Amino acid sequence: MKLWQKVFLCTLALVTAAVNLIAFILLQENHQTLLNGEMNRALSQHRSLSASLSNEVIYTRLKNNKVLLEEQEAEDVAQARIRAQTGNGLGVALITSQGRIVINRNAAALNLYPEFPQAVLEKQQQGTKIFQEGDRVYLTVGTPIRLEGNFYALLTLQDISSVFALADQQSHFVQVMSLVFAGITSLLLLAISLGLLRPLRRVNLSLRVIAAGKYSKRLPETGSREFRELAFNINRMAASVEEHVESLRTAAEDRKRFIDNLAHEMKTPLTSILGFADLLRVKKEVSEAERREYAGVIVEETHRLQNLSGKLMELITAGSTRLEISNISVSALFQEIQTVFLPLLEKQQLSLHCILSSQGLSLQADPELLKSLLYNLLDNARKASSPGQEITLSCKKSPRGETIFTVLDFGVGMPEESIRKVTQPFYMVDKSRSRKAGGVGLGLSLCAEIVRCHRGMLDIRSQLGKGTCVTVIFPEKKEESL
Fold it and tell me: pTM surpassing 0.85?
């Protein structure tokens, strides 16, 4: 059963039950009020008749100058008075304490309950009783009365069928009106339920669209406060899912591109190695010059493969290796870098200029990863530079305590669109020049990963034909292992 059906049926049942309960209580109150009115009227008539009988007997006694009337005389006076006063459908009966009926006028229905007069005489107090004979309902009032020393039960009988008939009519009317009201209420509740739950159906349809893969779908944030909050949260969820899916798609594309590039980068040197090795194996006569040429190509391509595997290993382990943070003297670091790089730079007729803002400069970082970072940046600057040019390596502290390294070259530079891609694995601005220089396109990818591990920032600025400036910012750290 759907939610709107449950809401509709439950609300209809509650409203109908509440209306019927209220109607029942009102009917009972009204019926009891009418019944009390009839009872008060019957009691009033009964008291009037009882007083009239007593007064008539006393008047007759005084009129006849007797001390007491005989029993039969008193009963005759009572009968005469009852016949004279009884009317308007009022039934009257006078019964002795022995159960003898002195008079029964329009009170034949009392024969159904002969024990009632005896109970009145025994208890010597007024009593009332409502009973039904056929389709008629009667109200009986009984009181003990003393006439000339003898006790009698005076009973009056009042037909109150109209009160119960009116109650039945009202009950029937309420039942009919309850059905009519239930029908009207059901239509109104149906319209209200469908109207109130329309935003929920809209949310449900939108969720189906999102579940089908259309994560860009957004819900209008309209309606009541609850539905606005629901739509807002669903939109946030859809945006988060869309972002996550997009990141997964991007990661999958990057992984595919990485594997494709890796396969491509490995294919070229392997092909060269296999080809020249096969020449050495198949060719019967190989001159010394040819042997040296073939062996040189094999060695060069083997070095490329070795360099490629080393860079890949560094790139893979950089993000998963636990950093061993220690205090590093930048001055000592620069001296070590100069010692390693000077022979390579002199061979290419390049010069390295190191600048320190202060001799006591130091920072907290992983020494091996920091060396790898600067080696790769300097190596890229070397590959981009021409003979006779200078490469600058500098370090300084910012006012906020950050350590800033800068590697500046005046080489070929690169276009604006390439700057955003150079940190992608295997991306090379000039593939032929990079391969000739022994590059594999992983240096800046490794640099970006090392900077990320240190929670730093890598900034690359370059102009085509004017050179490149790479800035690395390390935040201030306490001495700890990250």
Answer: no
Phi, psi of 288 (to 5 degrees): -60, -40
pLDDT reading at 478 higher than 70: no
3-state secondary structure of 37: helix
Q: Is residue 121 part of a domain?
A: yes
Q: Is residue 202 part of a domain?
A: no
In this predicted structure, the answer to whether residue 432 has a pLDDT above a threshold of 50 is no
> CATH number, domain at 87?
3.30.450.20
Determine, yes or no, domain membership for 193: no
DSSP string computed for 62-121: HHTT-SS--HHHHHHHHHHHHHHH--TT-EEEEEETTS-EEEEES-GGGGG-THHHHHHH
CA-based R_g, the chain, Å = 57
Of the ranges 55-59, 198-202, 314-318, 351-355, which one carries the lowest mean pLDDT score? Answer: 314-318
Q: What range does the domain containing 443 cover?
A: 324-474
Query: Which CATH number characterizes residue 332's domain?
Result: 3.30.565.10
pLDDT at 267 over 60: yes
pLDDT digits (tens, 9 = 90+) for 18-50: 888 888 899 899 989 998 998 898 899 889 888
Residue 199 lies in a domain: no
CA-to-CA distance for 160 and 168, rounded, in angstroms? 13
**403 vs 476: CA distance, rounded Å:** 7
Do residues 402 and 454 lie in contact, with contact meaning Cβ atoms separated by under 8 Å? no
Q: What are phi and psi of 459, to 5 degrees?
A: -125, 130
Say if residue 233's pLDDT is above 80. yes
CA–chain centroid gap for 334, Å, is 58
Beta 101-105 vs 127-133: how paired, if at all? Answer: unpaired
